[in-house]
Amino acid sequence: RRISDLLDAAVRPPRAALPLPNLRRSKRGGAYDYLIVGAGFAGSVLAERLASAGNKRVLLCDRRPHIGGNAFDHRDEAGILVHKYGPHIFHTNSEEIFAYLSRFTAWRPYEHRVLAAVGTQRLPMPINRTTLNALYGLDLRNECDTEAFLQSRAEPVETVRSARDVVINQVGSELYRTFFEGYTRKQWGVDPSELDKSVTQRIPTRCTTDDRYFLDRFQAMPLHGYTAMFENMLAHDNIELALGTDFRELKREQLATKIIYTGPIDEYFDHRFGPLPYRSLRFRHETLDQRRFQPVAVVNYPAAAVPYTRITEYKHLTGQVHRKTSITYEFPQAEGDPYYPIPAAENAALYKRYAQLADEQGDVTFVGRLGTYRYYNMDQVVGQALATYRRMDVGTTSAPEA
Ligand code: FAD
Ligand code: UDP
What we know:
Elements: H1 3-11, E1 32-37, H2 41-53, E2 58-62, E3 73-75, E4 81-83, E5 91-92, H3 95-101, E6 107-109, E7 114-118, E8 121-125, H4 129-136, H5 143-153, H6 163-188, H7 198-201, E9 218-222, H8 226-234, E10 239-243, H9 247-250, E11 256-261, H10 265-268, E12 278-288, E13 298-300, E14 310-313, H11 315-318, E15 325-333, E16 340-341, H12 345-359, E17 364-366, H13 368-371, H14 378-392
Parallel strand pairs: 1-2, 1-11, 2-10, 7-13, 11-17
Antiparallel strand pairs: 3-4, 5-9, 6-9, 7-8, 12-15, 12-16, 13-14, 14-15
Helix pairs in contact: 2-14
This protein binds flavin-adenine dinucleotide (FAD) and uridine-5'-diphosphate.
Flavin-adenine dinucleotide binds next to helix 2, strand 2, helix 13 and helix 14.
């Protein structure tokens, strides 16, 4: 199939009038085949697969009062669709993952663009030819010119190990300081030299003028939002939801023989080997009495002197027409909800100890960004959850009533 056909098909509205689950319903004391902890992508994909393909009875709990995990979106007081936990842009190279999610949502084609604020300039990020021409007043005309310019700036690093090495090796220390050093220190609370190279490898420099943030084959936003997509995913008679309910409250009730856990893995084991470090964020949401705030959905602020990392304006993502606009500032911090596992060697070593413990638990499966301590995007979590379901080798007969 051609990709455009798949997108065309997916852009059509979803089947009309899917029954919505009663999101607040929670019948305690029933017998379930699985208790799933966390109603984000990891938990919801597994709940959907187990309930519909596996015909299993699932109790899905989340300590938050809503489904969707960090991808949760809702209408704010002005009626603008916003993301409670910061901007979530869907992109994937996997046709399988895109096709799977397309069962639960239609899509709005959307290609993400980001500008970086450098002084009074707003420059394309990742660094591309336009960025360099504007920053240095150059006239680089093609990829060859640009490549040669970057090579003249690059400071080759023999073995690229850290997030700093990646950038210095590609573009040299000046561009590193302008675009990466301050942003990364703010975002992660440590110097880029202490972070795994995978962190800045997410943002490779380009010699072209392509200013899209992602180059994936499929880039789109759920047409009616993420929460609506999750509602469709969880609308199944075999799935019962317990929202605003912490796993700790359910643990002793022996509601199911098997558990799928998508919360922080160190918390599951009561931090036995010490806490795994996570990075958190404080979000400042604002609604402004104007139609537009900034030219693209996200503007990054790499300067160390600015306390936030980026500002998001949601109407660019959703295409919503409204006379006001809503934006979110992100202020990184150590304390608070765990949003990012921190990719660094010592943290990976500590995670490995927890993962060994996890392997020894016959009846618990750990999945997701927090459950497996991986800096995963949404599509990677969906892929991981689908692969986990396949490995579980679930029969289609439900267990008898207890
Ligand atoms: P989560 O969404 O974190 O879900 C885990 C759930 O478990 C939570 O709802 C939590 O409340 C619940 N839970 C934890 N412990 C318990 C407990 N003891 N009892 C009950 N419930 C519990 N990805 C992209 O692809 N594109 C993006 O643009 C993008 N932007 C992002 C921006 C930000 C600011 C952040 C933080 C992440 C972003 N991501 C993005 C990543 C994306 O959010 C994750 O990949 C995805 O949401 C992870 O899903 P999950 O199910 O593993 O975890
Ligand atoms: N980064 C940066 N400057 C930028 C954008 C990104 O230094 O303008 C670095 C920073 O370390 C960031 C990482 O690249 O954490 C990955 O960026 P991405 O936009 O993928 O972060 P996320 O959306 O996951 O927060």
